[in-house]
Amino acid sequence: MNRQAVEKQVNIFRKRVRLLLIERGALFGASAGMTFSAVLAALSCRFDVLINYPLWTAVPLAGAAGGFLYGLLRPLDDLAVAALTDKRANLRERLSTALALSRQSDAATAHESDVLRALINDAVERASKLDAGRVFPHKFGLPHAAFGVGTLLFAAAIVLPVCPAIQSENRRAEVRVMKREGAKLVRIAKEIRREAGSKQAEMQKLAARLEELGRKIESGRMSKKQAMLKAHRLTKEIRERQDQLAKAHGATKPMDRAAADIRKASEQLAKEMAAKLAADKNIPFEQAMKQLPHNTKLAKLAEKPGTLSPEEQNALEKMLAKFAAPGSTIRIPPELAAAFAKLLSNEDYRQAIKLLQALAKKLNLPTDTSKITPADREALRKQLEALAKALKNTELDKLAKALLDNARKLAAMSPEELEKLVKELEQMRRMKRWLAKAKGG
Fold this sequence. Notes:
By secondary structure, this protein is mostly helical. 77% of the residues lie in helices and 0% in strands.
Protein backbone atom coordinates (compact mmCIF):
# COMPACT_ATOMS: atom_id res chain seq x y z
CA MET A 1 0.00 0.00 0.00
CA ASN A 2 2.87 2.39 0.87
CA ARG A 3 4.45 1.92 -2.51
CA GLN A 4 1.13 2.44 -4.30
CA ALA A 5 0.44 5.59 -2.30
CA VAL A 6 3.78 7.22 -3.12
CA GLU A 7 3.54 6.27 -6.80
CA LYS A 8 0.03 7.71 -6.91
CA GLN A 9 1.34 11.06 -5.68
CA VAL A 10 4.23 11.01 -8.16
CA ASN A 11 1.81 10.17 -10.96
CA ILE A 12 -0.20 13.35 -10.24
CA PHE A 13 2.90 15.49 -10.73
CA ARG A 14 3.98 13.47 -13.76
CA LYS A 15 0.67 14.23 -15.53
CA ARG A 16 1.19 17.92 -14.89
CA VAL A 17 4.72 17.79 -16.24
CA ARG A 18 3.48 15.85 -19.29
CA LEU A 19 0.92 18.58 -20.09
CA LEU A 20 3.59 21.24 -19.89
CA LEU A 21 5.91 19.21 -22.13
CA ILE A 22 3.11 18.77 -24.69
CA GLU A 23 2.43 22.50 -24.72
CA ARG A 24 6.14 23.28 -25.02
CA GLY A 25 6.63 20.84 -27.87
CA ALA A 26 3.53 22.04 -29.76
CA LEU A 27 4.57 25.69 -29.44
CA PHE A 28 8.12 25.06 -30.58
CA GLY A 29 6.89 22.85 -33.46
CA ALA A 30 4.36 25.44 -34.59
CA SER A 31 7.01 28.17 -34.33
CA ALA A 32 9.40 26.22 -36.52
CA GLY A 33 6.60 25.49 -39.01
CA MET A 34 5.52 29.13 -39.21
CA THR A 35 9.12 30.26 -39.70
CA PHE A 36 9.52 27.77 -42.54
CA SER A 37 6.19 28.87 -44.06
CA ALA A 38 7.28 32.50 -43.75
CA VAL A 39 10.37 31.66 -45.81
CA LEU A 40 8.21 29.90 -48.42
CA ALA A 41 5.80 32.84 -48.56
CA ALA A 42 8.65 35.32 -48.96
CA LEU A 43 10.25 33.28 -51.75
CA SER A 44 6.88 32.86 -53.50
CA CYS A 45 7.12 36.43 -54.77
CA ARG A 46 10.06 35.26 -56.87
CA PHE A 47 9.16 31.61 -57.45
CA ASP A 48 5.43 31.25 -58.18
CA VAL A 49 5.55 27.48 -57.70
CA LEU A 50 5.69 28.23 -53.95
CA ILE A 51 2.39 30.14 -53.97
CA ASN A 52 0.38 27.60 -52.06
CA TYR A 53 -1.74 28.85 -49.16
CA PRO A 54 -2.87 25.35 -48.07
CA LEU A 55 0.80 24.28 -47.87
CA TRP A 56 1.72 27.37 -45.87
CA THR A 57 -1.06 26.53 -43.41
CA ALA A 58 -0.30 22.82 -43.27
CA VAL A 59 3.38 23.24 -42.36
CA PRO A 60 2.76 25.01 -38.99
CA LEU A 61 -0.03 22.55 -38.21
CA ALA A 62 2.28 19.65 -38.98
CA GLY A 63 4.98 21.23 -36.79
CA ALA A 64 2.51 21.64 -33.93
CA ALA A 65 1.34 18.06 -34.32
CA GLY A 66 4.94 16.81 -34.32
CA GLY A 67 5.75 18.81 -31.20
CA PHE A 68 2.58 17.55 -29.55
CA LEU A 69 3.54 13.93 -30.22
CA TYR A 70 7.08 14.53 -29.01
CA GLY A 71 5.80 15.93 -25.72
CA LEU A 72 3.27 13.12 -25.41
CA LEU A 73 5.65 10.26 -26.16
CA ARG A 74 8.87 11.59 -24.65
CA PRO A 75 10.11 9.19 -21.89
CA LEU A 76 9.48 10.65 -18.45
CA ASP A 77 11.21 9.02 -15.46
CA ASP A 78 9.18 8.91 -12.21
CA LEU A 79 12.28 9.35 -10.05
CA ALA A 80 13.28 12.47 -12.02
CA VAL A 81 9.77 13.89 -11.57
CA ALA A 82 9.89 13.16 -7.84
CA ALA A 83 13.33 14.81 -7.52
CA LEU A 84 12.11 17.91 -9.39
CA THR A 85 9.02 18.05 -7.17
CA ASP A 86 11.27 17.87 -4.07
CA LYS A 87 13.34 20.75 -5.38
CA ARG A 88 10.38 22.98 -6.28
CA ALA A 89 8.27 22.20 -3.18
CA ASN A 90 11.25 22.21 -0.80
CA LEU A 91 10.54 18.66 0.38
CA ARG A 92 14.26 18.00 1.00
CA GLU A 93 14.29 14.89 -1.17
CA ARG A 94 11.53 13.22 0.85
CA LEU A 95 9.40 12.21 -2.18
CA SER A 96 12.27 10.94 -4.31
CA THR A 97 13.77 9.02 -1.35
CA ALA A 98 10.39 7.50 -0.48
CA LEU A 99 9.87 6.43 -4.10
CA ALA A 100 13.32 4.87 -4.31
CA LEU A 101 13.00 3.04 -0.98
CA SER A 102 9.50 1.78 -1.77
CA ARG A 103 10.82 0.09 -4.85
CA GLN A 104 13.51 -1.83 -2.97
CA SER A 105 13.07 -5.48 -2.10
CA ASP A 106 11.37 -6.65 1.11
CA ALA A 107 14.62 -8.07 2.59
CA ALA A 108 14.76 -5.37 5.32
CA THR A 109 14.19 -6.13 9.01
CA ALA A 110 10.97 -5.41 10.83
CA HIS A 111 12.56 -2.40 12.57
CA GLU A 112 13.88 -1.10 9.30
CA SER A 113 10.45 -1.67 7.76
CA ASP A 114 8.86 0.52 10.41
CA VAL A 115 11.36 3.24 9.68
CA LEU A 116 10.75 2.85 5.97
CA ARG A 117 7.02 2.99 6.52
CA ALA A 118 7.34 6.15 8.56
CA LEU A 119 9.47 7.86 5.84
CA ILE A 120 7.05 6.95 3.10
CA ASN A 121 3.99 8.05 5.10
CA ASP A 122 5.63 11.38 5.84
CA ALA A 123 6.49 11.94 2.16
CA VAL A 124 3.00 10.97 0.99
CA GLU A 125 1.36 13.21 3.60
CA ARG A 126 3.43 16.22 2.59
CA ALA A 127 3.00 15.57 -1.15
CA SER A 128 -0.77 15.18 -0.86
CA LYS A 129 -1.03 18.70 0.52
CA LEU A 130 0.68 20.16 -2.58
CA ASP A 131 -1.12 21.53 -5.65
CA ALA A 132 0.49 20.21 -8.85
CA GLY A 133 -0.48 23.40 -10.67
CA ARG A 134 1.44 25.52 -8.17
CA VAL A 135 4.47 23.23 -8.05
CA PHE A 136 4.63 23.23 -11.87
CA PRO A 137 2.87 26.48 -12.82
CA HIS A 138 2.06 27.56 -16.36
CA LYS A 139 4.41 30.40 -17.27
CA PHE A 140 4.99 32.42 -20.40
CA GLY A 141 8.54 31.72 -21.45
CA LEU A 142 10.74 30.87 -24.40
CA PRO A 143 8.19 28.61 -26.21
CA HIS A 144 5.59 31.36 -26.17
CA ALA A 145 8.10 33.97 -27.28
CA ALA A 146 9.18 31.74 -30.15
CA PHE A 147 5.55 31.17 -31.10
CA GLY A 148 4.88 34.91 -31.12
CA VAL A 149 7.93 35.65 -33.27
CA GLY A 150 7.00 32.87 -35.69
CA THR A 151 3.44 34.21 -35.95
CA LEU A 152 4.69 37.73 -36.69
CA LEU A 153 7.10 36.49 -39.34
CA PHE A 154 4.43 34.34 -40.96
CA ALA A 155 1.86 37.16 -41.01
CA ALA A 156 4.42 39.64 -42.34
CA ALA A 157 5.53 37.31 -45.14
CA ILE A 158 1.91 36.86 -46.26
CA VAL A 159 0.61 40.42 -45.85
CA LEU A 160 3.52 42.74 -46.66
CA PRO A 161 4.19 41.67 -50.29
CA VAL A 162 0.56 42.40 -51.23
CA CYS A 163 -0.01 45.40 -48.97
CA PRO A 164 -1.04 48.38 -51.16
CA ALA A 165 0.38 50.85 -48.62
CA ILE A 166 3.98 49.84 -49.39
CA GLN A 167 3.52 49.29 -53.14
CA SER A 168 4.22 51.78 -55.89
CA GLU A 169 1.39 53.15 -57.98
CA ASN A 170 2.47 51.07 -60.98
CA ARG A 171 2.56 47.91 -58.90
CA ARG A 172 -0.88 48.61 -57.45
CA ALA A 173 -2.26 49.02 -60.98
CA GLU A 174 -0.62 45.74 -62.05
CA VAL A 175 -2.08 43.91 -59.06
CA ARG A 176 -5.59 45.20 -59.80
CA VAL A 177 -5.37 43.96 -63.38
CA MET A 178 -3.92 40.59 -62.35
CA LYS A 179 -6.61 40.06 -59.70
CA ARG A 180 -9.31 40.70 -62.31
CA GLU A 181 -7.72 38.44 -64.93
CA GLY A 182 -6.96 35.74 -62.35
CA ALA A 183 -10.59 35.68 -61.20
CA LYS A 184 -11.65 35.41 -64.84
CA LEU A 185 -9.40 32.38 -65.40
CA VAL A 186 -10.80 30.70 -62.28
CA ARG A 187 -14.38 31.15 -63.52
CA ILE A 188 -13.51 29.78 -66.95
CA ALA A 189 -11.71 26.79 -65.44
CA LYS A 190 -14.71 25.93 -63.26
CA GLU A 191 -17.04 26.08 -66.27
CA ILE A 192 -14.75 23.83 -68.31
CA ARG A 193 -14.47 21.36 -65.44
CA ARG A 194 -18.24 21.25 -64.95
CA GLU A 195 -19.03 20.69 -68.62
CA ALA A 196 -16.09 18.46 -69.56
CA GLY A 197 -17.31 15.60 -67.39
CA SER A 198 -15.32 12.78 -65.86
CA LYS A 199 -14.65 11.11 -69.21
CA GLN A 200 -12.43 13.93 -70.48
CA ALA A 201 -9.50 13.42 -68.13
CA GLU A 202 -7.12 15.60 -70.12
CA MET A 203 -9.55 18.48 -70.13
CA GLN A 204 -10.07 18.09 -66.38
CA LYS A 205 -6.31 18.32 -65.84
CA LEU A 206 -6.12 21.36 -68.08
CA ALA A 207 -8.97 23.00 -66.17
CA ALA A 208 -7.25 22.26 -62.84
CA ARG A 209 -4.01 23.85 -64.04
CA LEU A 210 -5.92 26.81 -65.41
CA GLU A 211 -7.70 27.31 -62.09
CA GLU A 212 -4.44 27.01 -60.17
CA LEU A 213 -2.79 29.61 -62.40
CA GLY A 214 -5.81 31.89 -62.03
CA ARG A 215 -5.65 31.70 -58.24
CA LYS A 216 -1.92 32.43 -58.23
CA ILE A 217 -2.38 35.45 -60.47
CA GLU A 218 -5.38 36.54 -58.39
CA SER A 219 -3.28 36.43 -55.21
CA GLY A 220 -1.26 39.42 -56.46
CA ARG A 221 2.04 37.81 -55.41
CA MET A 222 3.27 37.12 -58.92
CA SER A 223 5.14 39.71 -60.91
CA LYS A 224 3.70 40.86 -64.21
CA LYS A 225 6.50 39.10 -66.07
CA GLN A 226 5.84 35.83 -64.25
CA ALA A 227 2.11 36.03 -64.91
CA MET A 228 2.60 36.74 -68.63
CA LEU A 229 5.14 33.94 -69.02
CA LYS A 230 2.97 31.36 -67.26
CA ALA A 231 -0.14 32.48 -69.14
CA HIS A 232 1.72 32.26 -72.45
CA ARG A 233 2.89 28.71 -71.76
CA LEU A 234 -0.54 27.55 -70.66
CA THR A 235 -2.11 29.31 -73.65
CA LYS A 236 0.11 27.29 -75.94
CA GLU A 237 -0.98 24.05 -74.26
CA ILE A 238 -4.62 25.13 -74.44
CA ARG A 239 -4.26 25.79 -78.15
CA GLU A 240 -2.70 22.36 -78.67
CA ARG A 241 -5.46 20.73 -76.64
CA GLN A 242 -8.10 22.59 -78.61
CA ASP A 243 -6.58 21.28 -81.83
CA GLN A 244 -6.57 17.75 -80.43
CA LEU A 245 -10.19 18.08 -79.35
CA ALA A 246 -11.15 19.36 -82.78
CA LYS A 247 -9.34 16.49 -84.52
CA ALA A 248 -10.99 13.97 -82.20
CA HIS A 249 -14.37 15.21 -83.43
CA GLY A 250 -13.18 15.44 -87.04
CA ALA A 251 -13.01 19.23 -86.84
CA THR A 252 -9.88 20.19 -88.76
CA LYS A 253 -11.61 22.78 -90.93
CA PRO A 254 -12.86 26.16 -89.65
CA MET A 255 -16.49 27.13 -90.20
CA ASP A 256 -15.64 30.30 -92.14
CA ARG A 257 -13.85 28.19 -94.74
CA ALA A 258 -16.85 25.86 -94.89
CA ALA A 259 -19.14 28.85 -95.47
CA ALA A 260 -16.90 30.06 -98.31
CA ASP A 261 -16.97 26.58 -99.87
CA ILE A 262 -20.78 26.52 -99.70
CA ARG A 263 -21.04 29.93 -101.38
CA LYS A 264 -18.80 28.72 -104.20
CA ALA A 265 -20.84 25.52 -104.48
CA SER A 266 -24.09 27.56 -104.62
CA GLU A 267 -22.70 29.73 -107.42
CA GLN A 268 -21.59 26.65 -109.33
CA LEU A 269 -24.99 25.01 -108.80
CA ALA A 270 -26.75 28.13 -110.08
CA LYS A 271 -24.63 28.03 -113.23
CA GLU A 272 -25.39 24.34 -113.76
CA MET A 273 -29.12 24.93 -113.26
CA ALA A 274 -29.05 27.87 -115.67
CA ALA A 275 -27.13 25.88 -118.26
CA LYS A 276 -29.65 23.04 -118.08
CA LEU A 277 -32.57 25.47 -118.28
CA ALA A 278 -30.99 27.25 -121.24
CA ALA A 279 -30.53 23.95 -123.04
CA ASP A 280 -34.09 22.77 -122.29
CA LYS A 281 -35.77 26.02 -123.36
CA ASN A 282 -33.22 26.96 -126.01
CA ILE A 283 -32.66 30.41 -124.46
CA PRO A 284 -29.49 32.39 -123.72
CA PHE A 285 -27.58 31.56 -120.55
CA GLU A 286 -28.04 35.07 -119.10
CA GLN A 287 -31.80 34.82 -119.57
CA ALA A 288 -31.83 31.40 -117.94
CA MET A 289 -29.95 32.81 -114.95
CA LYS A 290 -32.67 35.41 -114.49
CA GLN A 291 -35.38 32.72 -114.57
CA LEU A 292 -33.83 30.71 -111.74
CA PRO A 293 -35.67 30.87 -108.38
CA HIS A 294 -34.07 33.51 -106.23
CA ASN A 295 -34.79 34.89 -102.77
CA THR A 296 -33.10 38.25 -102.23
CA LYS A 297 -33.68 38.41 -98.46
CA LEU A 298 -32.45 34.85 -98.01
CA ALA A 299 -29.32 35.53 -100.05
CA LYS A 300 -28.63 38.76 -98.15
CA LEU A 301 -28.76 37.04 -94.76
CA ALA A 302 -26.72 34.07 -96.01
CA GLU A 303 -23.94 36.33 -97.27
CA LYS A 304 -23.88 38.70 -94.29
CA PRO A 305 -20.45 38.74 -92.63
CA GLY A 306 -20.16 38.14 -88.90
CA THR A 307 -22.85 36.92 -86.51
CA LEU A 308 -26.55 37.38 -87.12
CA SER A 309 -28.59 39.37 -84.63
CA PRO A 310 -31.47 37.57 -82.84
CA GLU A 311 -33.96 39.32 -85.15
CA GLU A 312 -32.02 38.32 -88.28
CA GLN A 313 -31.65 34.75 -87.03
CA ASN A 314 -35.40 34.53 -86.38
CA ALA A 315 -36.15 35.91 -89.86
CA LEU A 316 -33.80 33.37 -91.45
CA GLU A 317 -35.44 30.52 -89.52
CA LYS A 318 -38.89 31.55 -90.75
CA MET A 319 -37.77 31.75 -94.38
CA LEU A 320 -36.10 28.33 -94.24
CA ALA A 321 -39.15 26.86 -92.52
CA LYS A 322 -41.25 27.78 -95.56
CA PHE A 323 -39.01 25.67 -97.80
CA ALA A 324 -39.02 22.76 -95.33
CA ALA A 325 -42.82 22.67 -94.90
CA PRO A 326 -44.19 19.32 -96.19
CA GLY A 327 -46.83 20.88 -98.45
CA SER A 328 -44.67 23.76 -99.68
CA THR A 329 -44.37 24.28 -103.45
CA ILE A 330 -41.85 27.16 -103.19
CA ARG A 331 -39.02 26.75 -105.69
CA ILE A 332 -35.63 25.80 -104.26
CA PRO A 333 -33.14 28.70 -104.72
CA PRO A 334 -29.39 28.07 -105.19
CA GLU A 335 -28.58 30.00 -102.01
CA LEU A 336 -30.55 27.61 -99.75
CA ALA A 337 -27.45 25.66 -98.65
CA ALA A 338 -25.56 28.86 -97.90
CA ALA A 339 -28.48 30.02 -95.74
CA PHE A 340 -28.37 26.78 -93.73
CA ALA A 341 -24.61 27.15 -93.36
CA LYS A 342 -25.13 30.65 -91.99
CA LEU A 343 -27.70 29.39 -89.50
CA LEU A 344 -25.30 26.66 -88.35
CA SER A 345 -22.33 29.05 -88.11
CA ASN A 346 -24.56 31.27 -85.96
CA GLU A 347 -24.72 28.26 -83.61
CA ASP A 348 -28.47 27.81 -84.01
CA TYR A 349 -27.96 24.05 -84.13
CA ARG A 350 -31.30 22.89 -82.81
CA GLN A 351 -33.49 24.75 -85.32
CA ALA A 352 -31.09 24.22 -88.22
CA ILE A 353 -30.98 20.44 -87.73
CA LYS A 354 -34.75 20.30 -87.29
CA LEU A 355 -35.27 22.11 -90.61
CA LEU A 356 -32.63 20.04 -92.36
CA GLN A 357 -34.36 16.86 -91.23
CA ALA A 358 -37.67 18.19 -92.59
CA LEU A 359 -36.00 18.87 -95.95
CA ALA A 360 -34.38 15.43 -95.90
CA LYS A 361 -37.78 13.79 -95.30
CA LYS A 362 -39.26 15.89 -98.08
CA LEU A 363 -36.49 14.77 -100.44
CA ASN A 364 -37.06 11.10 -99.58
CA LEU A 365 -40.81 11.14 -100.34
CA PRO A 366 -41.87 9.11 -103.41
CA THR A 367 -42.07 11.21 -106.56
CA ASP A 368 -45.81 10.61 -107.03
CA THR A 369 -46.68 11.80 -103.51
CA SER A 370 -44.27 14.71 -103.29
CA LYS A 371 -45.32 18.23 -104.29
CA ILE A 372 -41.72 19.14 -105.13
CA THR A 373 -40.86 19.26 -108.86
CA PRO A 374 -38.14 16.99 -110.29
CA ALA A 375 -35.96 20.01 -110.99
CA ASP A 376 -36.31 21.29 -107.43
CA ARG A 377 -35.78 17.79 -106.08
CA GLU A 378 -32.49 17.56 -107.96
CA ALA A 379 -31.51 21.07 -106.85
CA LEU A 380 -32.30 20.23 -103.23
CA ARG A 381 -30.35 16.98 -103.41
CA LYS A 382 -27.30 18.73 -104.84
CA GLN A 383 -27.48 21.52 -102.27
CA LEU A 384 -27.66 19.10 -99.38
CA GLU A 385 -24.69 17.22 -100.81
CA ALA A 386 -22.77 20.49 -101.21
CA LEU A 387 -23.61 21.45 -97.65
CA ALA A 388 -22.45 18.06 -96.39
CA LYS A 389 -19.16 18.23 -98.29
CA ALA A 390 -18.50 21.75 -97.03
CA LEU A 391 -19.21 20.74 -93.42
CA LYS A 392 -16.99 17.68 -93.61
CA ASN A 393 -14.05 17.86 -91.15
CA THR A 394 -15.59 20.81 -89.34
CA GLU A 395 -17.09 20.73 -85.83
CA LEU A 396 -20.34 19.66 -87.57
CA ASP A 397 -18.73 16.59 -89.10
CA LYS A 398 -21.38 14.22 -87.64
CA LEU A 399 -24.12 16.22 -89.30
CA ALA A 400 -22.15 16.18 -92.56
CA LYS A 401 -21.92 12.38 -92.46
CA ALA A 402 -25.67 12.12 -92.03
CA LEU A 403 -26.26 14.43 -94.99
CA LEU A 404 -23.76 12.63 -97.20
CA ASP A 405 -25.77 9.44 -96.86
CA ASN A 406 -28.24 10.87 -99.40
CA ALA A 407 -30.05 12.53 -96.48
CA ARG A 408 -31.62 9.16 -95.58
CA LYS A 409 -29.78 8.84 -92.29
CA LEU A 410 -30.81 12.32 -91.19
CA ALA A 411 -34.41 11.76 -92.25
CA ALA A 412 -34.56 8.49 -90.30
CA MET A 413 -33.13 9.91 -87.07
CA SER A 414 -35.40 9.66 -84.02
CA PRO A 415 -36.08 12.75 -81.86
CA GLU A 416 -33.77 11.26 -79.21
CA GLU A 417 -30.93 10.84 -81.72
CA LEU A 418 -31.41 14.40 -82.95
CA GLU A 419 -31.38 15.72 -79.39
CA LYS A 420 -28.17 13.82 -78.66
CA LEU A 421 -26.54 15.27 -81.80
CA VAL A 422 -27.63 18.79 -80.83
CA LYS A 423 -26.25 18.40 -77.29
CA GLU A 424 -22.91 17.17 -78.61
CA LEU A 425 -22.66 20.17 -80.93
CA GLU A 426 -23.65 22.59 -78.17
CA GLN A 427 -21.09 21.08 -75.79
CA MET A 428 -18.39 21.47 -78.43
CA ARG A 429 -19.47 25.07 -78.95
CA ARG A 430 -19.22 25.84 -75.22
CA MET A 431 -15.84 24.13 -74.97
CA LYS A 432 -14.58 26.10 -77.96
CA ARG A 433 -15.74 29.38 -76.42
CA TRP A 434 -14.17 28.66 -73.02
CA LEU A 435 -10.88 27.63 -74.58
CA ALA A 436 -10.92 30.82 -76.62
CA LYS A 437 -11.62 32.83 -73.45
CA ALA A 438 -8.81 31.07 -71.66
CA LYS A 439 -6.41 31.93 -74.48
CA GLY A 440 -7.54 35.52 -74.36
CA GLY A 441 -7.35 35.66 -70.54
